[in-house]
Amino acid sequence: MSQNSLSFTGSIDESRHGDNVRHGATSSMSQYSSKQNHKSNDPGRDLSIQVLEKFSLVTKFARDTTSSLFRDNSGAHAYGRQQHQYILDKSTNHKNQYVTPEKASAPSATLESDPLPLVWGKQRDHPLSVEEWTSFLDREGRIMDSKALRKKVFYGGVDHALRKEVWKFLLGYHEYDSTYAEREYLAVMKRAEYEVIKSQWKSISATQAKRFTKFRERKGLIDKDVVRTDRSIPYYEGDDNQNVVVLRDILLTYSFYNFDLGYCQGMSDFLAPILYVMEDESESFWCFASLMERLGANFNRDQNGMHAQLLALSKLVELLDPSLHNYFRQNDCLNYFFCFRWVLIQFKREFSFDQIMLLWEVLWSHYLSEHFHLYLCVAILKKYRQRIIGEQMDFDTLLKFINELSGQINLDRAIQDAEALCTIAGENGASCIPPGTPPSMPVEMYVQED
């Protein structure tokens, strides 16, 4: 085996993962988790994301053309990799099946032998509690050991009652060495700044809007997206829901705050959980803006941010499972565009609402890697490698199969497997990911953690 090839097939198999597992969610989440059903997502909205996955193959088209496809779902049906219709069957009903470590069967025989011993990620811990959180703070409110805090979040997540406070640090809205007083002052200043930015579009009259094409287009796209974002969650369900209005206002304000980037479909997917946790318009805006500092490149017109991540993913699979990578090469899947949705919106469509909050705080901890989401992609692909290779999936079949994994992945197991892969890859894995590949943290965040 080459030093640059770390094949790791034996530790990950389909039997280790169950469906829709509860992951440390608190009692405050139980009121809606049973209602969450990914298969009931708006078909037109899901199709739009799927079209973008395939549309990204043709990079010569501008983002405006992509946006037109988002707004016209009927036109989306005509687009295909080989000009044939591509429609995903959303009717499959998946049952909850939690496979415990004790019940999980031993890894099945792989298509190629794996010379490495089995390596497992650590068992998931309980969420960060109020008592534990308090122990990280000094008398003035500074976090004394940010690395230890991020480690705790990585392995257990955050109790829902604490998310409003802890997420502000994970997202970079608050600095780890800031005091209670400094954070209170910041909140006042940022609230005033937010209102100033918001007034820029609130003051646009109907007459002005008629001559402001960019504003009309963005507002129209936002209006369409917010009414079909996480509407199965009680916080956003029902007609005339004020929280949906706030969601729209934040996105419109952000489109003026970052006018060059504006608004792209998928941004509402990121904002919805943030607003749910913060329950405050200004704080939600600034947390979202901080997140877009890392992930905004996912929505750039040239799609360089997405291409950089998919290229890094390709290199990681080549490193950790060369036989699977070779299969993708032989079947014209080497661009890894079948993982486009996973990367674009950070697995938002693959897990339930409470699960995605846990996953995102694990990713935001940046404990093992700021690109841990790519190792998660590798872990899931390796889990299904036997089916992919055994059924000789081509690109279209693979894309359909990947999208239909929504709601079928055991999150705890996937995180454990990704941790093991990240540990095994080590510096070789880090070298697969060029500096600046999203979601890289701003330089100042590295400084405050030293």
Draw up the topology in text.
Layout: H1 30-33, H2 43-55, H3 63-71, H4 73-76, H5 130-135, H6 146-156, H7 160-170, H8 180-202, H9 206-210, H10 213-226, H11 242-257, H12 267-278, H13 281-295, H14 304-320, H15 322-330, H16 340-344, H17 353-365, H18 372-383, H19 385-390, H20 395-403, H21 411-430, H22 443-449
Helix pairs in contact: 2-3, 6-17, 8-11, 8-13, 10-11, 11-12, 11-13, 12-13, 14-15, 14-18, 14-21, 18-21
Pfam families: RabGAP-TBC (PF00566)
Main location: cytoplasm
Biased composition (Polar residues): 1-12, 25-35
Précis, in short:
By secondary structure, the chain is mainly α. Helix content is 54%, strand content 0%.
| Count of helical stretches | 22
Give the C-alpha Rg.
22 Å
Rounded to the nearest angstrom, the distance between the terminal CA atoms is 37 Å
**Helicity range of the residues?**
40-55%
**H/E series, N to C?**
HHHHHHHHHHHHHHHHHHHHHH
Strand content: under 5%
DSSP E strands, number: 0
> What is the level-2 CATH architecture name of the largest domain?
Orthogonal Bundle
Q: What overall geometry do the principal axes of the alpha carbons give?
A: globular
Model regions low in confidence, pLDDT < 50 over at least 5 residues: 8-15, 17-40, 54-118, 443-450
CATH class of the largest domain: Mainly Alpha
Summarize the main sheet. Answer: none
- Mean pLDDT score, rounded? 80
Output the structural class.
mainly alpha
Q: What's the CATH H-level homologous superfamily of the largest domain?
A: Ypt/Rab-GAP domain of gyp1p, domain 3
Which fold does the CATH topology of the largest domain refer to?
Cyclin A, domain 1
Number of domains: 2
